[in-house]
């Protein structure tokens, strides 16, 4: 993996945004896989600033959703479709028609999962997939012990993940759905470039296990070690348990521009 250690969350967002902008300058119609939650917000904010300043043209870009809650009504403010429209599509001035996502309200959820995998393939595959990491090492909603070859499917959330996400539902864990559709780890690994962003001391243990530990289904994010083009961007707090932190800092200092894209 390419590991980039930055000072704070804002610097992480700017670093990833600049990388995405470089991709879009080369491939204007790139398919970008987006993540939700608080961690990627600085990325979208930095991209919006670049768009407003004329630093990047995103008019032809396409967006693919990583996961979705099952059972929330259409238009629910915390459905991930609503979140992506609100936090990514609208601020970046993207065409809503360019936005792909799984149908969490489908009657046949299994068929919806298969249809989304097929749609991603038909679109030419994801050029860059932005990922976060859970405190237990999950990516997307692939909880610990998910198959590293898994495809888009329905998953049951652990109580830890529901507790982590309760802040988006007024702090009430009972309002957090128990099931989700998520791209599987095998699906995620098909993206041409994986970019994992992690900030905060509470992610330090998960980051260390994903980057420096063995590849194991108990830490789903460790599957990124198998990918030929994976970049991990972490702030100092999230990097605090990396044994090779000094090496990563020195490597990035010798190559200050993010050239991995």
From TrEMBL:
Q: Where is the Glucosamine/galactosamine-6-phosphate isomerase domain?
A: 10-226
The catalytic activity, as recorded, is:
alpha-D-glucosamine 6-phosphate + H2O = beta-D-fructose 6-phosphate + NH4(+)
**Which residues bear the site annotation Part of the allosteric site?**
146, 153, 155-156
Domain of life (superkingdom)? Bacteria
Q: What EC class is this?
A: hydrolase
Instruction: Identify one Pfam family in the record.
Output: Glucosamine_iso
Q: How is its activity regulated?
A: Allosterically activated by N-acetylglucosamine 6-phosphate (GlcNAc6P).
- Describe its function: Catalyzes the reversible isomerization-deamination of glucosamine 6-phosphate (GlcN6P) to form fructose 6-phosphate (Fru6P) and ammonium ion.
Keywords carried by this UniProt record: Allosteric enzyme, Carbohydrate metabolism, Hydrolase
* Family membership: Belongs to the glucosamine/galactosamine-6-phosphate isomerase family. NagB subfamily.
Q: What SUPFAM superfamilies does the database record attribute to this sequence?
A: NagB/RpiA/CoA transferase-like (SSF100950)
Query: Its pathway?
Result: Amino-sugar metabolism; N-acetylneuraminate degradation; D-fructose 6-phosphate from N-acetylneuraminate: step 5/5
Please name the InterPro entries in this protein's record: Glc/Gal-6P_isomerase, Glucosamine6P_isomerase, Glucosamine6P_isomerase_CS, NagB/RpiA_transferase-like
GO molecular function annotations of the record:
glucosamine-6-phosphate deaminase activity
**What residues make up the catalytic site?**
67, 136, 138, 143
| Signal sequence coordinates | none
> Whose protein is this, by species?
Streptomyces demainii
Enzyme Commission identifier(s): 3.5.99.6
Task: State what protein this is by name.
Answer: Glucosamine-6-phosphate deaminase
């Amino acid at each position: 993996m390419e590991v980039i250690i930055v000072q704070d969350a804002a610097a992480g967002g700017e670093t990833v945004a600049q990388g995405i902008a470089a991709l879009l300058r080369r491939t204007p119609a790139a398919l970008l896989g987006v993540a939700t939650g608080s961690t990627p917000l600085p990325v979208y904010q930095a991209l919006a600033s670049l768009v407003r300043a004329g630093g990047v043209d995103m008019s032809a870009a396409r967006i693919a959703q990583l996961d979705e809650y099952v059972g929330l009504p259409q238009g629910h403010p915390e459905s991930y479709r609503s979140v992506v429209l609100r936090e990514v599509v609208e601020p970046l001035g993207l065409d809503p028609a360019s936005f792909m996502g799984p149908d969490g309200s489908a009657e046949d959820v299994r068929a919806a999962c298969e249809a989304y995998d097929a749609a991603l393939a038909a679109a030419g595959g994801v050029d860059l997939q932005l990922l976060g990491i859970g405190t237990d090492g999950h990516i997307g909603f692939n909880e610990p012990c998910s198959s590293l070859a898994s495809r888009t499917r329905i998953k049951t959330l652990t109580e830890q993940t529901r507790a982590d996400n309760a802040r988006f539902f007024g702090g009430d864990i009972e309002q957090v759905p128990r099931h989700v559709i998520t791209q599987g780890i095998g699906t995620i690994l098909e993206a041409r470039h994986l970019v994992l962003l992690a900030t905060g001391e509470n992610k330090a243990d998960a980051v260390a296990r994903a980057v420096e530990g063995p590849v194991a289904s108990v830490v789903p994010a460790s599957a990124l070690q198998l990918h030929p083009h994976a970049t991990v961007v972490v702030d100092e707090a999230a990097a605090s348990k990396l044994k090779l932190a000094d090496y990563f800092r020195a490597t990035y200092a010798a190559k200050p521009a993010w050239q991995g894209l």
